Amino acid sequence: MFAAVDLGSNSFRLHIGKYNGDAIRVIKSARDPIRLAAGLDSKGYLTEQAMQVALDSLSRFRDILADYQLEAVRVVATNTLRIAKNAAEFLPIAEQAIGYPIEIISGEEEGRLIYMGVASMLRLPNEKRLVLDIGGGSTELILGRGQQIERVESFGIGTVNQSLAFFADGQITAAAYDAAVLSARSHFEDAAPPYRPQNWSHAYGSSGTIRAIAETIERNGLGDHRLSYTSLEALKNCFVEFGHVSRIDLLGMKPERAAVMVGGLAVLIGLMQELGIEVIQPIEAGLRMGVMWDLQLRGTRLDRRDQSVHDFSQRFHVDQLRASRVAETATSLFDMLKPTSDVLSQYLHWSALLHEVGLVVSQSGYHKHAAYLIENADLSGFTTREQRAMSMLILGQKGNLRKISDALLDPDFSKAVLALRLAVMFLHSRIEVDLDELRLKMKSKIELDIKHDWIEDHPTASYWMAKEQDFWREIGVDFAIRTT
């Protein structure tokens, strides 16, 4: 069983699913409509009240999760925590409340996970499709064929911010709707061409807002009863006739949804106008299902992050032989150092494979360029936290260690940095490493036993090793090198 927790801008949601060999069946769901995006103040900070409501929800989710024997749990946060200026301060207490790490994912990664969830439900390998997801704080457009994603983009417009911007006082007028729709179109117009109907055969709406709009249209017999432009216009006219959010009275519309649905409808109308979509099919699948499928794939070693690293290294013309050599040596040295856990081993491997991507910018300071690229790139499958850890490893591959001194307080991270630095040094010195002839320890000090022949056969090796000793001693770590 797997659990996916989605900390969205409008609602916090939880799915617990069981994998049965060809599908994941949801056996438990929970939802708290906390409207986190509305809890951002004028300066972009989450208010104390908003954070407390969020923590109460996370504590409730923790109790639910505790009732199940779960193989893996993944908690992802989306747009509001991406943009909140005090997210870094809120995250540790939020993690304590739910009892699991929280990953703030990029909009593009959110889109990819949404598509995974939709594709797993449809099982149509050759269908060219567009998937739309309108969340509380962002909207994702994903173009794909079958399981393969061809294009994904995230836009900073959603149900909550559009409702607050144009219907903040609850008043619903035709003029306000026209302005809200025009605003929505402006977000999508530059990106629209690839997503127009000639590039796909079916359009699907995966978000709770889109499903709720579709249900309201059907139950109230609006338009042609489908999620079409005609039906959306009919629903809009109903809202305008009601005149105020508090007076909306439609079958299938929950009171807490009405406040954000008026803004969500404006976004959806704007999308359909700008992209030329005639009808959308709502689907009960999306981010949480995608997260669970991603967990299942990781468990079977079909990790999207491997492909992401490969694609990124190809894009920046990394020398694969050099990268593979450093990765193999670094991970072997890390194992030799006996870390307390193997959590960092995979990140060290990926970091080593990407350690020279900065060469595409400049030979000088390439490690700094590489670190920046890895931290800021759109790497499918990776979280912001994972990319930051890899960036720090890559930044620490050479030069002084003061720039990553805080990270070196973690003993296992120090061992990973040492392993990568030595692997890079051996590469630059052209030393063919035979690990059976090398001894390496790192406790209160670093001890390296190396063959004397390695030094004699590679003139620059002694220079690099002396420099390495100096760098570690600068941060108070003794480094003893013995030749045998």
TrEMBL record:
Domain Ppx/GppA phosphatase N-terminal: 23-296
GO molecular function, one term: pyrophosphatase activity
CDD domains per record: ASKHA_NBD_EcPPX-GppA-like
Keywords: Hydrolase
Domain Ppx/GppA phosphatase C-terminal: 305-464
Superkingdom of this protein's organism: Bacteria
Name of the molecule in the record: Ppx/GppA phosphatase family protein
Organism this protein belongs to: Collimonas arenae
